[in-house]
Write a structure and sequence with these properties.
The protein is an alpha+beta fold. The chain has 13 helices and eight strands.
């Protein structure tokens, strides 16, 4: 069997299986791209603050400190203003999540159904709601989509149109349905090859991040400065919380799950900026508040700096609104390719029945 025929069979059979999962992931991912805007629009009473631009970061920290003192050991996680959320939210150990005014700590309400919907949408996007193995199903399908479907598709396109490349980008809008369907499949596939390649490659990171980091570690210098310190006289919890770093804003606090767990303070370069490189800092402290580790983008290894960019690249946020629009459109393409590809297959089957041999 000729190589071209083998590649075509791989393209179809892998496309009809893993391509379906990739289509579902793409569609759910496209929907999630606009989560910040939809969440803010549907929940202004929980997420929005009228005077947010006039508030200094110290105000958020003082309110968070006051709430931490008030609710003490009942807190599981605390999230300070970030992206669409201009308020402070607390996830309690009993599973409830409440929202508070980030200026005065006033109770605003509990988590709404629409916020839960987008949280579930993200879980579905990453795991298809399949317990334990769901993330491996989506992650593996993404890798297969990347290595077999996209690459075999670009190979078929190139072998067909290598002598007249411009024809590979043409759609005859007034042609018959079968021809239009074929043109749409080939043009969308080649036009979105790079965006889909990028989204697939970055998407698989969230399942196989340890392997990605191991591969990226070849870019690190042999001597890496350890960002670990030990406090002989650890500060109080409130002091850590109120500590203002001009380079970063405190984004979240993860409390102890059990006696053997640690506190984690996560920082982001800017609360509301949603484009450019993702720069973060994370402080981990023990139950007696001694510093266990401190990682800072400014001093981090090259591999970790690159790994930090997988999320903004995957969502398109690294390129601002343009990037998000591109990811949204690209997220719809796998389903379109799946439908048009299946119709091409059915059309060929009908033709073979009519003219066997």
């Amino acid at each position: 069997m000729a190589l071209g025929n083998i590649v075509r069979k791989i393209h179809f059979w892998v496309g009809i299986t893993c391509g379906l999962v990739a289509s579902i992931s793409g569609l759910s991912g496209a929907m999630y791209v606009w989560q910040p805007e939809f969440s803010a629009a549907l929940n202004p009473e929980l997420l929005k603050m009228k005077n947010i631009d006039s508030l200094e970061d110290d105000v958020f920290l003082k309110t968070a400190s006051s709430l931490a003192t008030t609710h003490s050991d009942s807190i599981s996680k605390m999230f300070l203003p970030y992206r669409e959320q201009q308020t402070i939210s607390i996830e309690f150990k009993n599973g409830k999540t409440n929202y508070y005014n980030s200026e005065n700590g006033q109770f605003l309400g509990e988590k709404s159904a629409s916020i839960v919907f987008f949280e579930d949408l993200l879980k579905f996007h990453r795991t298809l709601f399949i317990p334990k193995i769901g993330k491996y199903v989506t992650g593996t399908s993404t890798i297969v989509f990347l290595l077999l479907i996209l690459l075999s598709g670009i190979y078929i396109w190139y072998k067909t149109y290598s002598s007249t490349l411009k024809n590979g980008f043409k759609i005859k809008w007034k042609s018959k349905k079968k021809k239009f369907n074929f043109d749409l499949h080939k043009v969308l596939g080649v036009s979105f090859f790079i965006p889909l390649l990028t989204i697939s490659f970055t998407g698989a990171y969230f399942t196989y991040n340890s392997y990605y980091k191991k591969a990226l570690s070849v870019l690190d210098s042999r001597t890496i400065l350890k960002q670990e310190t030990q406090n002989k006289n650890p500060p109080s919890f409130a002091t850590i919380l109120l500590d203002s770093d001009k380079s970063y804003d405190l984004r979240a606090i993860y409390y102890l799950k059990d006696a053997n767990d640690n506190y984690r303070f996560r920082y982001i370069e800017s609360r509301f900026k949603t484009q450019g490189l993702r720069k973060t800092k994370e402080l981990t402290v023990s139950t007696n508040l001694k510093t266990i580790s401190l990682t800072d983008y400014r001093n981090d290894a090259t591999s970790n700096r690159l790994a930090a960019q997988f999320y903004p690249v995957h969502t398109g946020e690294i390129a601002g609104l343009f990037g998000r629009i591109l990811v949204f459109i690209a997220g719809l393409i796998p389903l379109t390719l799946y439908i048009t590809g299946f119709r091409i297959y059915l059309s060929k089957k009908r033709r073979l029945r009519k003219f066997p041999g």
